[in-house]
Design brief:
Layout lengths: L13 H6 L1 H10 L41 E3 L3 E7 L8 E7 L2 E6 L2 E6 L7 E7 L4 E7 L2 E10 L17 E8 L7 E7 L6 E5 L4 E7 L18 E6 L7 E4 L26 E5 L4 E6 L2 E6 L7 E6 L8 E6 L5 E6 L20 E7 L6 E8 L16 E3 L8 E5 L5 E5 L7 E8 L12 E7 L2 E6 L3 E7 L14 E2 L9
Antiparallel strand pairs: 1-26, 2-29, 3-4, 3-30, 4-5, 5-6, 7-8, 8-9, 9-10, 11-12, 12-13, 13-14, 15-16, 16-17, 17-18, 19-20, 20-21, 21-22, 23-24, 24-25, 25-26, 27-28, 28-29
Length: 495
C-alpha cells in the first residue's frame, strides 16, 4: 500500500486524514489526478463489529444502492461459505499465500496459518506474533518469508518501533521454517535498504530469489538515502536458507523515473517499486513502481533488465501492483489512489481514477511494448465512509483465451471481472459488506482476494478470512485446475 514516509517511524500520518475525511474527499474530487496518500500503516481497523452480519439469501444490490452497515451482499453467482473472524481485532490483515491444504495470512502483528482442506470450515492451525507491518508473505517448501517495512529496534519478533533516523533501526526480510505448521521457527533475517514493503518470490533450481520492493528514501535515514531507484535482490540457498543475503541492487530507473509534481501534479515520484509480479515461464516480470509501470526480462534473476516503461500522468496517482493474463500478452496494473485509506469508489472520483489499467503487450523480445487499452473500476458506488480503491487480485485460470480475474477493493469488497476484451472490461460477480462505519471514514475491507483450487479466499482487514464459491459458466473450467502452491506475485503457468 502507498506510503509517503515523513518521520519514517512508520506510525503513518493517515490518522489525521481519516479524522478529516470530509476534507480529504473534497481534495480527491477537485484536484485533477489526486496525490497518493499514506497507507493505513499501524492504524487500527474501523470501529465496526469484528464479526460479520449474516448474508441475506441471494441478496443483490439494486442499482445505486449502498448496503446497510456490515450487511453482506453478493451477486447470485457467488456464495459465501465461511468467515473466520480476526483473533486480534486491532490488527490489520494483509496478504495471502497458499501451499497444499494451507493458507498463510499476513497481518501487521505477524501471520496466521489456516487449514483449508475443507473450504467450508477452515481452521486456525497457529498464529505467530511478529510485529513489523505490513508482513507481506510468501511460501516455498518449508520456508515462509515476511516483509518488514516499519523501522524496528532490531530484527527480532519482540522488537518495537524505532525512528529510521537511528542507524541501529532494522527493516527487511524475515525467514521462518514452517515444516511444523503448529510451531514455525524464525531462522534468519536479511536487512534491505528502505525495508521491504513487498517481496516477490522468484523460484529457481538450487536457489530462491526474492525481489524486494521498497521506496521513499530520505537524506535523514542512514539506511535509506536517495537515490533509491532499484530493488534489492535476496538470494536464498534452498539447502542453506540461513545463508540468505542481498546479492544485487539492480537500478531500474537510471534517469530517476517519474519526477512527480510539479511536472506531473498528483502523481507519485518514482523512488523505488511498490510491487512486482514475475512470470517465470516467460522470464518476464511487471513492476508497479510508484509513478511508472515497467516490463522487464528476468532470464538472469540477479540482473533483471527493463524492456519497456509506461506512465499515466492523467489518471494514475500510484502504480501499485501488476497481473499478467494467461497468454502473457496483457498486464493489468492497479492505481492505489489515496493509498488505501480514502473513499475513491464514488461518483465524484469517477470511473478512471483509483482503477485498473489494462495494457496489451505487443512485439517480441526486447521490442515488446506496453500499449494502454482501457480502465476497469467496480461499477458499484461506495459510501464516503468506506475506504475503497483497486488492490490485490489474481487470475481465475479459465484458459481458452478468456481473461478473468478476482480482485480486492477494500470496502468495495471482492470483484470478479472479465477483461478478455481489453477495451471493454466488465464485472461479472461481486461480494461486499456494507460500511464499517456510517459517521466517519473507516478502515477495512478486502486487502487480498485470490482464487485457489476452486475457491476465492479474501483476507479482510477487519473481518478476517472469507471463503467464497464462484459458480459461473464462464469460470467452470478453472475448477479443474489444481495447484500445490500459489504465491500470486510468482504467477504460475496454469495450463
Amino acid at each position: 500500500m502507498t506510503t509517503l514516509h515523513t518521520a519514517r517511524v512508520r506510525h503513518r500520518s493517515l490518522g489525521v486524514a481519516l479524522a478529516a475525511a470530509g476534507l480529504l474527499t473534497t481534495l480527491l474530487a477537485t484536484a485533477g489526478p489526486a496525490a497518493a496518500t499514506p497507507d493505513p500503516g499501524d492504524l487500527s481497523p474501523g470501529a465496526g463489529s469484528g464479526r460479520s452480519a449474516g448474508p441475506a439469501p441471494d441478496r443483490e444490490l439494486a442499482p445505486g444502492e449502498i448496503p446497510g452497515q456490515d450487511e453482506i451482499v453478493h451477486s447470485r453467482n457467488i456464495k459465501p461459505l465461511a468467515n473466520i473472524p480476526s483473533a486480534n481485532p486491532k490488527a490489520i490483515n494483509s496478504d495471502l499465500a497458499f501451499q497444499g491444504n494451507f493458507a498463510y495470512a499476513g497481518n501487521y502483528d505477524g501471520f496466521t496459518i489456516y487449514d483449508i482442506a475443507n473450504p467450508k470450515s477452515p481452521k486456525v492451525v497457529t498464529q505467530v506474533l511478529c510485529p513489523g507491518g505490513q508482513n507481506d508473505i510468501s511460501v516455498s517448501g518449508d520456508l515462509l518469508f515476511l516483509s518488514t517495512d516499519s523501522s524496528r529496534s532490531d530484527d527480532s519478533c519482540n522488537s518495537v518501533s524505532q525512528p529510521a533516523t537511528e542507524k541501529s533501526s532494522w527493516e527487511g526480510i524475515k525467514i521462518f521454517d514452517i515444516k511444523d505448521k503448529k510451531n514455525p521457527k524464525y531462522i534468519k533475517s536479511v536487512e534491505t535498504n528502505c525495508g521491504s514493503h513487498t517481496h516477490t518470490l522468484v523460484p529457481g533450481g538450487r536457489d530462491i530469489y526474492l525481489y524486494v520492493a521498497s521506496y521513499s528514501p530520505n537524506e535523514a535515514f542512514p539506511d535509506c538515502k536517495p537515490p533509491h531507484d532499484g530493488i534489492s535482490v535476496v538470494k536464498v540457498p534452498k539447502k542453506a536458507p540461513t545463508k540468505a543475503a542481498v546479492v544485487a541492487f539492480p537500478v531500474l530507473f537510471p534517469d530517476g523515473g517519474n519526477p512527480g509534481a510539479p511536472a506531473n501534479p498528483g502523481v507519485s515520484k518514482t523512488t523505488g517499486c511498490h510491487d512486482i509480479t514475475v512470470l517465470p515461464s516467460e522470464d518476464l516480470a511487471a513492476g508497479a513502481c510508484m509513478g511508472d509501470g515497467i516490463l522487464f526480462d528476468i532470464s538472469d534473476p540477479e540482473q533483471p533488465r527493463v524492456i519497456d516503461r509506461v506512465q499515466d500522468n492523467v489518471n494514475f496517482a500510484f502504480w501499485h501492483s501488476a497481473t499478467f493474463n494467461e497468454d502473457a500478452d496483457k498486464v493489468v496494473f492497479t492505481d492505489e489512489l489515496g493509498g488505501g485509506g480514502s473513499a475513491t469508489c464514488n461518483e465524484a472520483t469517477g470511473p478512471d481514477r483509483g482503477a485498473d489499467g489494462i495494457y496489451d503487450i505487443t512485439g517480441r523480445g526486447d521490442q515488446r511494448k506496453l500499449v494502454f487499452k482501457g480502465y476497469f473500476k467496480i461499477p458499484r458506488h461506495q459510501a464516503d465512509t468506506e475506504n475503497c480503491v483497486a488492490h490485490n487480485g489474481s487470475l481465475i485460470p479459465v484458459g481458452g483465451g478468456r481473461d478473468i480475474m478476482v480482485q480486492a477493493w477494500y470496502q468495495g469488497g471482492v470483484s470478479v471481472w472479465d477483461f478478455t476484451d481489453s477495451t471493454r472490461p466488465k464485472e461479472i460477480g461481486y461480494f461486499e459488506r456494507g460500511p464499517l462505519t456510517t459517521d466517519q471514514l473507516g478502515l477495512g475491507g478486502s486487502w487480498s482476494a485470490y482464487y485457489y483450487n476452486g475457491h476465492i479466499y479474501s483476507n479482510d482487514i477487519a473481518k478476517g478470512l472469507d471463503v467464497l464459491r464462484l459458480d459461473d459458466w464462464r469460470t467452470e473450467s478453472a475448477k479443474w485446475v489444481r495447484m500445490d502452491r500459489l504465491n500470486v506475485q510468482s504467477q504460475p503457468e496454469y495450463h
